[in-house]
Amino acid sequence: MGLLDVILGKRKLAGPAPDRLFAISTAYVKFETELGVTSRGSAAIVFQPLSNSDFQSIVSDMEEVVRGTSSDSGVTVDSSDDSYGFRWLVLRGTGFDDLVVGINGVSSSLEAGGYGERVLCAVFAFEDKQKRPLYWIYNYKRGAFYPFVPAAGDQQRDNERELVFKAQVGNELPVEQELERWFPLWGIPI
């Protein structure tokens, strides 16, 4: 009966919990101490920009907030558009928690402005002991993380290492259980 109500529009499905993004902060302790994985000092939020003034104002205001707090946090911000028309708002800094808070601030502002459906994902850049890059991607629509590990070669990924990282993280992160939803992001600018 509940599913029928949703289908008929009587009730809406609950969206993903926005506070799940903060799970990466506690998981980072395990990354560093047990797995030898460290932050590369950068993270990004990826969204589809709109050309209307309200949307542009929200993004501009958030960039200014991040820049304004940079004296306290050391986080810098810049943006670029990719070939698919997505905007990457890139944050860089030495404090991992500051990166998470900055990403959350931008996504919360877009959500509050009514543009939450425009947000694709957040990407956090890490490296292992051998300095090989790996990323944890947070899919806002699913409310879950998944690892992305590029391999040598053009648009190749290391599925084995991705599965190993999933297993090592355990219950520290809400990990996407459907592996076919672990979408690769090529050309990550962080």
Estimate the strand proportion: 15-25%
Helix and strand composition category: alpha+beta
Gross geometry: globular
Helix content: 25-40%
Rg value: 17 Å
Q: How many DSSP-defined strands? A: 8
Structure, explained:
The chain is of the alpha+beta class. Helices cover 35% and strands 25% of the residues. It contains 6 helices and 8 strands; from the N terminus they run H-H-E-H-H-E-E-H-E-E-E-E-E-H. It has helices spanning 2-7, 23-35, 53-68, 70-73, 96-112, 159-169; strands at residues 38-47, 76-81, 87-92, 119-127, 133-139, 144-148, 150-151, 156-157. The strands form 2 sheets. The protein has a 6-stranded antiparallel beta sheet. Strand 2 and strand 3 form a beta hairpin. Helix 3 packs antiparallel against helix 5. The N and C termini lie far apart (46 Å). The model is unreliable at 11-16 (pLDDT under 50).
Which key phrases capture this entry?
single chain; 190 residues; alpha+beta; six-stranded antiparallel β-sheet; two-stranded antiparallel ribbon; 6 helices; 8 strands; 35% helix
Quick structural summary:
The protein has helices at residues 2-7, 23-35, 53-68, 70-73, 96-112, 159-169; strands spanning 38-47, 76-81, 87-92, 119-127, 133-139, 144-148, 150-151, 156-157. By secondary structure, the chain is an alpha+beta fold. It starts with a helix and ends in a 21-residue tail after the last helix.
